[in-house]
Amino acid sequence: GIVSTFAKMHFKCRATVVPYLNSTITRFLVPDDKVPWSVEWSSYLPVEYTDPSTNGKPWADSNDLSKMRFNELDGNVNRKSHNGDYLIDGNGRPLNPVGRTGLSGRGILGRWGPNHAADPIVSRIKDGRLQFVAIKRKDNGEWAIPGGMVDPGEEVSATLKREFGEEALGGKKSAEMDNIWRNGRRLYAGYVDDPRNTDNSWMETVVVNFHDYEGVMDDVQLEAGDDAASVRWVAADSNEPLYASHKSFIDLLCASITI
Ligand code: BGC
Hints:
Layout: E1 47-50, E2 73-74, E3 77-78, E4 103-107, E5 113-126, E6 129-137, E7 143-144, E8 148-149, H1 156-168, H2 177-181, E9 184-192, E10 201-211, E11 228-235, H3 246-256
Parallel strand pairs: 1-4, 5-10
Antiparallel strand pairs: 2-3, 5-6, 5-8, 6-7, 6-11, 9-10
The structure holds beta-D-glucopyranose.
Residues 117, 119, 144-145, 147-149, 192, 194, 203, 205, 244-245 line the site of beta-D-glucopyranose.
Protein name: Nudix hydrolase domain-containing protein
GO molecular function, one term: ADP-ribose diphosphatase activity
Organism: Pristionchus entomophagus
């Protein structure tokens, strides 16, 4: 596949104009040149925050990190990063592979270290234009690729199908989709600049393109379900604003398909 170069800089997870999600916490301001951990910064004072409502949730880690096996498959929790081995700080906490975010702790993420997601881009060419299936997210009303979190022990290939089924097919089984899932091309695997990221917890995703070369999708009824309020085909060149880093994933799609 054509895995793009990993993100080397982050912006969304350094924003100080808005409070951190579901909180009144404001991040410590990190200038661009102070992002890399390799740059010494003795006066760096990140704000410590772990959303109390995540504590004890089945999808969240405990805050006792002593037994966690970072950079490894820890039981059925994948604590390996797509970006290679990440550093562990003096307190035994994983360090964000891109660098400082102005906020330490787990934030609202469930896992210390990488939090793995998967994004399926189902695409086709219709009337001479490249299109992909997009959903409108219930949580923030933004249009997005119908992705989601990889469950513990779940294969990424299964997450891709499951999330698409739940959000874009209304949870209904579709025999036609088996032809689509047969040919996936990995467009990206790695760190994502996501507003939830902290110094010690961050999002990573695997983006896989399933391009419909045979008009199979003409017989598939799209139906919004689960976390999606609606679903539709969106032209890849339409410049519509998209959730998180999804616009850059669609750019990768455009660059990889000749119309
Ligand atoms: C979303 C993915 C997204 C990832 C990183 C996940 O919660 O479901 O679509 O790529 O976060 O922003």
